[in-house]
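User: Working on a comparison across species. This one is histidine kinase from Nonomuraea harbinensis. Can you predict its structure so I can line it up against the others?
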Amino acid sequence: MTPTSEPHQEYRWVLPSVLLGDGGAGGPVRRSTRDWIVDIAMFLLACGLTLMTALEIDGPTPLVAAEQVVGVISCLSVWLRRRWPVGLALVTTVASGYFEMVGGASVVALFTVAVHRPFKISGTIAGLGLLVIVPFYFLRPDVDLGGPTYAILALAIVLTTFAWGIVVRARRQLIWSLRQRADGAAEEAKRLERERIAREMHDVLAHRLSMLSLHAGALEFRPGAPPDEVARAAGAIRASAHLALQDLREVIGVLRHHDADAEVPDRPQPTLADLPALVAECEQAGMDVSLRLKAGEVPEKPGRNLYRIVQEALTNARKHAAGAPVTVTVTGGPGEGVSAEVRNWLPVRHGPRIPGVQIPGAGAGLIGLTERAALAGGRLEHGPTPEGEYVVRAWLPWPART
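Assistant: Here's the predicted structure for histidine kinase from Nonomuraea harbinensis:
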């Protein structure tokens, strides 16, 4: 994966190599403060084990000198464990089959591989570490401990180091997995918020712009209208444009919200109580709309969703059946749910649309309404009837009062 300029994507790219050590082998090592502390501790551990071994070495002077040189080199090589962990582990493990003072570096290298490499690699090196005990047992027998005791001690050191490394690796994998899930959940939350804002923008702006287009079309095809009607239509155009810009500015303000940790406030949302005002606004634009509101005090959430559904249905009626009468009926009660039905005559039955007032649509309105109803736990149906009408019918749950 290629690093990107976005912080969260760069974090995802670096995270596996930092926690698991599965990337960048042989490349430049960039140590953090924690890495320096760990590496210094590992170096001191290797030196300490080597010094403990050096105090017990006896034999010919050339052998002692060789042990000391190899011991110093092996301790210094511990600083290469991040760049070449597998190679270092192989060399030190093979060398420990004869040289005692390589044992400290071999332990550190085995632990590093167990932490930073998969089991098929680390397990192979651990098995090699067990095998080299056999030649060391015969080539460098320990007189003080005895052969069997030394073999058991070496076996315990190899297995303990390997198991410790496996546990550390498993813990780091768990942490990395939890962070990945947290990142995925954050991305999903952002996606859902973007979809919510997109639906909000579509619902609001489609209504405002359709009203503006309707008034502008009336002015265009009625140039000889009385001055008061022209002034009223121009005022409606100005008001609709102002409200559309205000709604757009509020939505863009939410999108530009920089504080990711703070809760983004929702815009003031209309409810079912604002439905008469919506119908009055449509009537001022020249629509023939009748409202039958037969529901009580609908809760805020279903009322808000139902308002948006009716608003989009009225917008569609203006787009595709201009001049046709529209009937809006809202019924329901606690426990049985709340329903909204919007009916209008199809253009074929009612007559041709007014020239110049056709408003283009993307076809996403009804899809968005269906998704909105489904997310609210309800359903939405739409389509023509045999009588020549087009009906949009929605039902949303209304929990019974307790």
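For your comparison, note: The first helix runs from residue 7 to 19.

User: Helpful, thanks.
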